[in-house]
Write a sequence for this structure.
């Protein structure tokens, strides 16, 4: 994770074509939950904490704590999580935090139930947890990329961990999914930069039209396609 501008791009360009939609949709979902975040907040799998300044500026969070796993990333100079954990037990007492969020983290957890149980343990009663997980995205941070979740799988895991009032939304529908895959194909298929630019020039009008036309169906529908999922759940 790097800077806020990378995580909330304002327009589609050649340079950000592969990341534009997923980063923007994740940020917009997170922003829609800002009013729920308060008190002491735990950013699980925080990386370089790109959302920190925006959250502290726009929410009732008064203490932001970043947690990452040992060896997760090489961080920029001057940027480091507040705490590290070993993937087994988070270094906090029970019921330490009023809010929690984890963006694009759960797919990297080899034991997602352990992670969710730990999050549940360190949240205070009646605290929200905001999550996002990818669906149409290449393997990344290899070899530590283990899962892609359907809405039904993520709901089942959260219920087993004890969370209630679970809301799951798709962050893109059929058209956005095709737009994202075309953009990834252009940028990550392995074409030369020259050929990437030719393809982008030819296909970007179609990609933009797909994004404008996209319609998102409820996450419990059958025969849906989606780019990623946004999830809100509550500790009892």
């Amino acid at each position: 994770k790097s800077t806020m501008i990378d995580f909330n791009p304002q327009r589609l360009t050649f340079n950000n074509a592969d990341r534009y939609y997923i980063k923007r949709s994740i940020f917009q979902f997170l922003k829609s939950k800002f009013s729920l975040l308060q008190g002491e907040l735990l950013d699980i799998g925080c990386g370089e904490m790109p959302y920190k300044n925006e959250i502290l500026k726009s929410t009732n969070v008064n203490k932001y704590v970043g947690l990452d796993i040992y060896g997760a990333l090489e961080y920029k100079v001057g940027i480091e999580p507040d705490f590290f954990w070993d993937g087994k037990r988070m270094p906090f007492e029970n019921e330490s935090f009023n809010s929690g969020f984890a963006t694009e983290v759960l797919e990297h957890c080899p034991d997602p139930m352990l992670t969710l149980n730990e999050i549940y343990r360190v949240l205070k009663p009646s605290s929200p947890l905001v999550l996002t997980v990818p669906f149409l995205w290449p393997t990344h941070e290899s070899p530590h990329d283990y899962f892609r979740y359907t809405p039904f799988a993520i709901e089942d895991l959260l219920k087993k961990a004890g969370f209630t009032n679970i809301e799951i939304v798709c962050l893109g529908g059929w058209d956005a999914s095709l737009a994202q895959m075309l953009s990834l194909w252009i940028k990550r298929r392995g074409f030369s930069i020259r050929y990437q630019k030719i393809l982008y020039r030819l296909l970007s009008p179609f990609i933009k039209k797909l994004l404008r036309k996209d319609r998102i169906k409820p996450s419990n529908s059958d025969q849906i396609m989606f780019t990623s999922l946004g999830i809100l759940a509550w500790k009892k």
